[in-house]
Design a protein that fits this description.
Blueprint (H helix, E strand, L loop, with lengths): L1 E6 L2 E4 L4 E9 L3 E10 L6 E6 L6 E2 L7 E6 L4 E6 L8 E11 L2 E6 L3 E6 L1
Parallel strand pairs: 2-11
Antiparallel strand pairs: 1-3, 3-8, 4-5, 4-9, 5-6, 7-8, 9-10, 9-11
């Protein structure tokens, strides 16, 4: 079994910063792609940023230049550094990972962490 455990959410004023972390544990053979999604109240879950080993990261347009995704392969951990936060960044942020367990890969989700940006 695999678990994704997130941390780092909270309440911050507009213009502030937060760093989210997500660590994969359990029966992890190899972590392929890792990503962060977010879901604001009344809206659909959307992809924020993603990263694969050896590849260029992807960012959705509203966060380009403000958010940075990175990963530590040795720790099976992905980070999301969020700077210059805006009230519209308020959402529950979910970690997502494509994880290989022997010859098969599965997609896993974290439990979500609340990010609230006050104006």
């Amino acid at each position: 079994q695999v678990q994704l455990v997130e941390s780092g959410g909270g309440l911050v004023q507009a213009g502030g910063s937060l760093r989210l972390s997500c660590a994969a544990s359990g029966s992890v053979f190899r972590v392929n792609a890792m990503a962060w999604y977010r879901q604001a109240p009344g809206k659909q879950r959307e992809l924020v940023a993603s990263i694969i080993s050896g590849g260029s990261p992807y960012y959705t347009d509203p966060v380009k230049g403000r958010f940075t995704i990175s990963r530590d392969n040795a720790k099976n951990t992905v980070y999301l550094q969020m700077n210059s936060l805006k009230p519209e960044d308020t959402a529950v942020y979910y970690c997502n990972a494509d994880i290989a367990q022997s010859t098969l890969s599965y997609t896993y989700w974290g439990q979500g962490t609340q990010v609230t940006v006050s104006s």
